[in-house]
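User: Teach me something about this protein's shape.
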Amino acid sequence: MATSHKITLEIPGEIYTEIVDFRKRSRIRDANSAVVELIRYALTLPPYFKDFDWKKAEREADIEIKAGKVKSFSNTDDFLTELKA
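Assistant: First, the predicted structure itself:
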């Protein structure tokens, strides 16, 4: 039988709301099990995703958007054609 450990977490309300939403979408029986599943998933992420500086990337994207370095497409085909170019 696997060993388990009891851990008490204080989770902000907005995060708990997202956990509850995840639990419902995933059909997990309770919030505690949902938290365990989310932790298990986070521990299996490749190092690239764990170490990636998402806040920095978001700041850089905001700068690019403000500078007008964006393209808009009226349909998916135009978008895919641009990606292949």
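Now, about its shape. DSSP finds five helices and no strands in the chain. The mean pLDDT is 93. If you'd like, I can walk through any region in more detail.
User: That's plenty for now, thanks!
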